[in-house]
Amino acid sequence: MIIVGELINATRKAVKVAIEDRDHAFIQKLARDQADAGATYIDVNAGVFVEKEAEYLNWVIDNVTEVTDLPVCIDSPSSNVIEEALIHFQGKSNKTPMINSISLEKEKLENILPVVAGTDLRVIALCMNDKGMPHTVDERLETADKLINKLLQNNVKTENIFVDPLLQALASDSSCGVTFLTSIERIMNAYPGIHTICGLSNVSFGLPERGFLNQTFMAMAIAKGLDGAIANPLNEKMMATIVTAETLAGRDEYCMAYLGAYRAGKIK
Amino acid sequence: MIIVGELINATRKAVKVAIEDRDHAFIQKLARDQADAGATYIDVNAGVFVEKEAEYLNWVIDNVTEVTDLPVCIDSPSSNVIEEALIHFQGKSNKTPMINSISLEKEKLENILPVVAGTDLRVIALCMNDKGMPHTVDERLETADKLINKLLQNNVKTENIFVDPLLQALASDSSCGVTFLTSIERIMNAYPGIHTICGLSNVSFGLPERGFLNQTFMAMAIAKGLDGAIANPLNEKMMATIVTAETLAGRDEYCMAYLGAYRAGKIK
Fold first, then answer.
1. B42, B44, B64, B63: which is closest to B54 by C-alpha?
2. What is the C-alpha separation between B41 and B98, in angstroms, rounded?
3. Minimal C-alpha gap between A157 and chain B (Å)
4. Per-residue pLDDT reduced to its tens digit, B199-229
5. Tens digit of pLDDT for each residue in B157-208?
6. Which of A4, A210, B215, B224 is the most exposed place for a label (fewest CB within 10 A)?
7. Inter-chain touch A217–B248, beta carbons under 8 Å
8. Which residue, among B248, B263, B268, would best test binding to A if mutated, counting the most A CBs under 10 Å from its CB?
9. B247 touches chain A (CB under 8 A)
10. For position A2, what pLDDT does the model report?
């Protein structure tokens, strides 16, 4: 399971303040803690700083690379910022980063596609087009198919594509969980070697006991083939659920990862 | 979700002793507690009493029907005992019981099939034949197909059939979870209107933190279409997982069941 640690995101108040204050220790601790907890990528997002996004993002990357060897997941709506951050990161690490994200929206596609074309970058591909959020499974699959083909035609390898079918809140549509789960399954079956990824916490928006809902939904999504998550690796219950569900889904030979997590006190 | 409350089973020491001692209060409390906790059927099993199984089972049924209107799930390897218990239950209740179980094993099939043929009884159909436990998904599907056809030909309605694909211990074969999950999905897709059911606790045999494994696997199985479980309704975490997973699987319009369970303090 690919886990993109989501905590260094300037839409979170404490992170925004830390970036403004150039609080190295705060950012470095977030990076180190997420790495220690099992993150595979460290998401870096400074999108709230409109004028200074690139400058701040590079500063964040400096801090992350100082404390961990993990690759970053460069998270920005701007292709210029992504390109600048990419060059900056590649000057400091030989790891291949992830790009968050591309979609079938015309502007995003035209700007981000040249950045990833012909590279080994991993890229999150949102099932979104210019008509906005998809409603049905078929809409998601149609957008996914067009986007995947665009990426393949531009020499992005299947195994570097992480499709995000987009998940909506169950409180506003009680079928959106099953729509998402079915989309995951159909995408994983239709494109062997591809990945799926998502931030799952949307599903519980507006409902009580969100943590339990998110954790339960993670197990269900893993059963359907989900193999990537944008998540908080410091959430111990969620991480225990991921390890356990992966073991139950047959992705853990001899239950070695499960037993290792148990011995490390991570399954409680 | 159909929940067959599994607690009144004489393979459990305390239940065996209670039956031998004619301890009405003990058996009645188990029946009432399971009904209050959300069971749909009360499993009754006195199979350890070889000579007196029928007599003891009828006594158990007397106690169950005294405290709850729920139908029983008559659980015996013997068709004679099942027939006797069935007549006994039908003298006390107008509810339709479930029979646990039939399989493709020659003797079981020949003996149990006449009991359920042409009736409205619900029946658990094990994916087992005379070669023993199945190994692959295909073996399960092949046995399921033959058994379902036998039942249909004998005028058992599709919606009264609960297929149990049989679940083995992950500790001895790390692919048995995914084998089971795939079987559930293929059975539910191949026979519209049919049900699947299983006791899930086998999966965690020999591993630590079994409760968490079982609970996580329940969510995964519900994602794949499982709509029946032989379980302990007094296990609050398991019951919370079932309600939550059903809501996430789109089986709970407007999240009413989830919100009701939350308000009743059942989601923690």
1. B44
2. 8
3. 27
4. 999 999 999 999 999 999 999 999 999 999 9
5. 999 999 999 999 999 999 999 999 999 999 999 999 999 999 999 999 999 9
6. A210
7. yes
8. B248
9. yes
10. 97
Q: Both tokens of residue B23? A: 């301890």
Distances B95 to A95, A206, B69, B114, B161 between C-alpha atoms, Å: 65, 39, 8, 20, 17
Nearest CB neighbour to A252, from listed B174, B217, B250: B174
> What is the reported pLDDT for B50?
86
Q: Is A60 helix (H, G, I), strand (E, B) or coil?
A: helix
Q: Which of residues 171-190 of B touch A (CB under 8 A)?
A: 171, 174-175, 177-179, 181
pLDDT tens-digit map of A152-162: 999 999 999 99
**Contacting B residues, span 186-225, partner chain A, CB-CB under 8 Å:** 203, 207-209, 212-213, 216-217, 219-224
Angstrom distance (rounded) from CA B4 to CA B226: 13
Both tokens of B16, joined, read 């065996």
The ipTM estimated for the assembled molecules is 0.95
Q: Could you give the C-alpha distances from A128 to A147, A164, A224, A254, in angstroms and in order?
A: 9, 9, 21, 39
d(CA B73, CA B102): 13
Token pair in block for residue A133: 């959020």
Please name the residue of chain A whose CA is at the shortest distance from the CA of residue B245: A216
